[in-house]
Amino acid sequence: MSSWKYEEDGCTVVETCAWSPPGDHPVGCGLKLYVKNGELVKAIGNPEHPITNGRLCPRCLALREYIYHPQRVIYPMKRAPEDRGKDAWTRISWAEAYDLIEENVARIKKEYGAEAIFSVIGTGRDMWHTVPFITFGALGSPNFTYIHSGWSCYGPRCAISAYTLGAGYPEVDYAAMFQDKRYDHPDYKLTEVLVVWGKEPLKSNADGLFGHAFVDMMKRGTKIISVDPRLTYWGKNAEYWLQLRPGTDAALALAMLNVIVNEDLYDHEFCENWVFGWDELKERVQEYPPEKVAEITWVPKEQIIGAARLYANANPGSISWGLATDQKCNGVQFAHALLALMCCCGNIDVPGGIIVGAPSFAAPMWWGWDSLSPEMQAKRLGSDSGMGGDRYPAVTTAISTAQPDMPLDAMETGYPYPLKMSWIMSSNPIACPTAAPQRWDKAFKKLDFNVVCDLFMTPSAASFGDLFLPVSTFAEKDGIVNTHYGSLSMFTGAINKAIQVGECKADDEILLELGKRLNPSAFPWETMDEFLTWELDQYIPGMSIEELRDKKWAVPEWNYLKYRNGLQNFDGQDGFVTASRKIELMEPLFAEWGDDPLPYYEEPPYSPVNTPNLMKEYPFVLTTGARSWVFFHSEQRHVDTLREIHPDPITEIHPETAQTLGIKNGDWIWVENQFGKAKQRAKLFSGIDRRVIHSEHAWWYPERPAVDGEFGPEDVFLSNINNLVPHKLIGKLGFGSPYKAMICKVYKAED
Amino acid sequence: MSKKGLLIDYKYCTGCHSCEVACKNHLDLPVGKWGIKLIEVGPFIIEQGTPDKFEWIYLPVPTELCDMCVDEVEKGYKPMCAHHCLGDCIDYGTVEELAKLMESRPGKQTLYMPID
Lengths: 751, 116
Known about the structure:
Chain A has 3 domains: about 75-145 and about 365-470 and about 500-520, Rossmann fold, CATH 3.40.50.740; about 155-360 and about 575-590, Dimethylsulfoxide Reductase, domain 2 (3-Layer(aba) Sandwich), CATH 3.40.228.10; about 610-750, Beta Barrel (Barwin-like endoglucanases). Chain A is built from 26 helices and 28 strands. Helix content of chain A is about 30%, strand content about 15%. With about 120 residues, chain B is of the alpha+beta class. Chain B starts with a strand and ends with a strand.
């Protein structure tokens, strides 16, 4: 028995920090898992946890139901390619599964080259080192992919963080690193004004930010500015709720900068000493006066000015940027403008402001990359070498993936080379991330061999999987959880194995076992603990996994104002990791890559301004993908306790708009545009603009019976809102697709 | 012995449903039954302006099935709804203590005492 494993109530209690599966971001919420006769009988929050204090969301509270669900797949299974789409799976052993992989990998490498194999990762999950490492280190391919069109989740923000800030993920300082006193620690200062922009942290806990920390801060006096087309808890409780037209965020941010510059509200010392391109930016923002931007964004001029003043005068102010930043073609430029807002008032890396990660060469998404030959590296889809088809250097320089839209092009056309095998781990491509999902489904069906590692028979696995590898939940494995995937570690927790279910294996067990088979030299670790100690060393040098388990959690060394103390750069000198050693609000790399070096606003491709004729047929602006309390993207639709809370795919419509369309609350409706349609249930909601429709993403129906003997994904396209989003409608740099800014019409459907 | 109650500071209820699921775990309740259930009021406009000012309330309502988690409380825990509440807006204690706490804070609170 130990600090984290002991007897209580006739059970063995295992304390752990959660990550995934089930899907979640790396908050590392504290849990106590009660185990009796090898079975999890109870899971409650751990009140000792310094950040979550025992609190848990419904997804973790339904953990037992998820783990022991009758539909969970707990043994490896194979299916003949001719039976794709049918319930014709055969249980096999892990040894046979690995043999099948080894045979197919060897054959495909020989016939087509390793680049014909690509992997697919999903969001959030505990494997931003696992999937790249399997791809590069074990499969020997450079094509690690995340097939969300335009890398529209974190891609644009990541590009801005990498190229213009040269530091890990910027995040609101919610005192996570002061574990004992938190907000009362003498080195901390409470955020005075917090801008929550295009983000719903309460539901998403995005990238490891514990969203309800913002409620904790609000109770202590933090004031809120909410920027969101929909009313949320933040808008309801905000000093300013800026209800903008979806997709116009860059214009709004530039107008707020215009106010801050012209009213001289910026931090002169910071902007003169630590910003590159400040004079050019000052000139650029003159193109965005509040009057003009009010017309673009639908946000009244007085509110733009008022919110800009409130934020600029705060000491400190902070900004939390969300997923909506990325889901537009103009995402990189918007993220750039937002970074300018973050830094121009002197809020970067100060207590209660916007903190940034220290530099790190060993970002987990690059693990295994060096095991590839330079020739193989050059073949990555989107590589600047030109050997991977069209060049997208802005994507492939900062991020280890291929450009996300290119695998579909390669599968459909064979250019720049054909793809033959996929390795899908923590993704349900046709239900969730892909634009034009039916095209992806057809393309996957053309491949020779598809491996799916998951917990349930997802529509994607059912449609085109040939081999299914069953994966453990976080309660069934050992691991490490790090906020922001290690790029800004404010908390590091131990994930501790409490139970075993069937023959499920943790993703990292699959990584090590397969790695040793396919390429032993890249996987020198004998045991999981050896690997985890090596992993932990990247975050907290010198600490072993056993030590972390005993402590339960730890905080990597923390320092504010790193850029002034020689801690923000590899060479120990002051400044940031950029060519100018400053934050580059004018980015020369963007000019080199064919875009504007300064932030600018661009209309969404389909919008009232850009396509007024199309608006006659599709009169509404469509935004999509608001989060649910009980689902992580396409997961958990089969968990009855959670589904009871959120039974149907919801489309929100303003009551007056609904009335003109003859739609009542709860009616089934079609949301449709020139690219496709989706059937969802209408919810009349006065917290949305009369001209805007919002629809949920990632819906499918695991409860629907098999049709005509086909155990397949028929219904996965019925309510899939990404039917309305076209393939590869992306920004110049290869980032950003308009998932949150399309157009549509809405009409009543048959029930 | 003083009566025990739950004080709900519902301006900080974000509507997260954790109380519902935590309670269902504790009482082992199936679909369709709740020991505590969220209700939603609004959103509706209470003051026109730019933007409009809204009322929008989430409030957890304990039902007759609520047993105040007697066995968990004996072990030193709070009732499971209060323990897991993400907005940390549910307090447990004697009705006298809670009434004092209620008076000491800004409004939008409600004090619940379960059925005997």
